[in-house]
Amino acid sequence: MAAIPAAAAMAASNMARAAVRAAAATAAACGTRLADSVPREIVDDIFAHALKKQTGVSLKYMLDFGANPIERQLVLSAQFLQKELPVRLAHRVAELENLPYGLSSKPQVLKVRDWYVESFQELRSFPGVRNVEEEGAFTDLLRHIYRRHANVVPLMAMGVSALKKELSDKSFVTEMPEIHQFLDGFYLSRIGIRMLIGQHIALHEPPKAAHIGLICTKCSPWQVAQDAINDARSICLREYGTAPDVSIYGDPSFAFAYVPSHLHHMVFELVKNSLRAVQDRFDDGEEEPPPIRLVVAEGGEDVTIKVSDEGGGIPRSGLPRIWSYLYSTAKSPVQLDDSVVESGGPNVLAGYGYGLPISRLYARYFGGDLQIISMEGYGTDAYLHLNRLGNVQEPLP
Ligand SMILES: Nc1ncnc2c1ncn2[C@@H]1O[C@H](COP(=O)(O)OP(=O)(O)O)[C@@H](O)[C@H]1O
Ligand SMILES: [Mg+2]
């Protein structure tokens, strides 16, 4: 584990303390306090855990650790999770209690908070993991928790969009940087928690060739991109009756260690955006739409995937907004309702506004990044950087 400079650690712990104090104050003010529905000692336990430091791991650590998942390793992994997950969950509960503009008391946000509290309690009340049997029972609990939290993103999105509607009626602040910052941290933390749990569960499954849990040691960006392109084009075909071509440039046999599901998610979102932009720009059918170009570049430090389109680009003044969870230029923005939440999110080309910000978090989670460069009047280039060495520590909000 990398050492954190003492001053930074102190600042972080002061911030955590302030957040916990503020959480108590805000919640008390709006009558939806945790203490209204949860016994005192559990509330205290949660806030005590919210003050503890989270422990990050790296892709490389997960690879080394899972390379030989003998029973002893699995017990150690379960013990680590039993200590670490309550800390991460408690941090989020404290934040969920303390959101500005009354977001904390939105029913959807309260439901999400209650899921975090339930999972916290189940992990805390699970007796120690000392042997293989106990480890098996603990893994069952993890599976249950993993499923419980499946639809957190659309549910939170529903709460946030309800707030947005309310505030725009009052015609003030619609940018809400605090909420954006909170959501970035919240979703990033969720990616980390699901990665840790998912990895532990996956190590119990029958071994798959070139896989260590969720990580593929020979992940071919070319192949993953091809699958993501097929999926994105089929949605485009369904919505528009036609879809621009996408050509891939790069070495199909090149492979590196990465989580294919994360990579698929990111490329899928980028390609959907490009398809939509090109399709909308060339929809009069007079000109053949120019193909979207996806380039896979293999560097020593990074693997970079560039997605280039001639879809007309994004005005420079609008660029900061594309990273917002509250912004989409989709013609018919998706109405988030219970059915969308139950299905885990809308299966459409655009309209949720979450594609870019969440993809950037997936990239950053393993030390990469996502950049969008636009030439208004011509097209857009998305650069997806993936860190190759994988020894970057998880970022922990
Ligand atoms: N390749 C692109 N060309 C033009 N505009 C884009 C492109 N990618 C993203 N955008 C703009 O950024 C916005 C946000 O994108 P995203 O986060 O994927 O959400 P959504 O696609 O649901 O609107 C889009 O609504 C669109 O206005
Ligand atoms: Mg999109």
From TrEMBL:
Q: Predominant location of this chain?
A: mitochondrion
Q: Which SUPFAM superfamilies match?
A: alpha-ketoacid dehydrogenase kinase, N-terminal domain (SSF69012), ATPase domain of HSP90 chaperone/DNA topoisomerase II/histidine kinase (SSF55874)
Q: Give the matching InterPro entries.
A: AK/P_DHK_N_sf, BCDHK/PDK_N, BCKD/PDK, HATPase_C_sf, HATPase_dom, His_kinase_dom
Q: What class of enzyme is it?
A: transferase
| Gene Ontology cellular-component terms listed | mitochondrial matrix
The cross-references to CDD domains, in alphabetical order and at most eight, read: HATPase_PDK-like
Q: What is its EC number?
A: 2.7.11.-
Annotated Gene Ontology MF terms?
Answer: ATP binding; pyruvate dehydrogenase (acetyl-transferring) kinase activity
Q: Which residues form the Histidine kinase domain?
A: 260-390
GO BP annotations listed = regulation of glucose metabolic process
Q: Which reaction(s) does the protein catalyse, per the Swiss-Prot or TrEMBL entry?
A: L-seryl-[pyruvate dehydrogenase E1 alpha subunit] + ATP = O-phospho-L-seryl-[pyruvate dehydrogenase E1 alpha subunit] + ADP + H(+)
Q: Name the UniProt key words of this record, in alphabetical order.
A: ATP-binding, Kinase, Mitochondrion, Nucleotide-binding, Pyruvate, Transferase
List where in the cell it is found: Mitochondrion matrix
Q: Tell me which family the UniProt entry assigns to this protein.
A: Belongs to the PDK/BCKDK protein kinase family.
* UniProt-recorded name of the protein: Protein-serine/threonine kinase
- Name its species: Raphidocelis subcapitata
Taxonomic lineage is: Eukaryota, Viridiplantae, Chlorophyta, core chlorophytes, Chlorophyceae
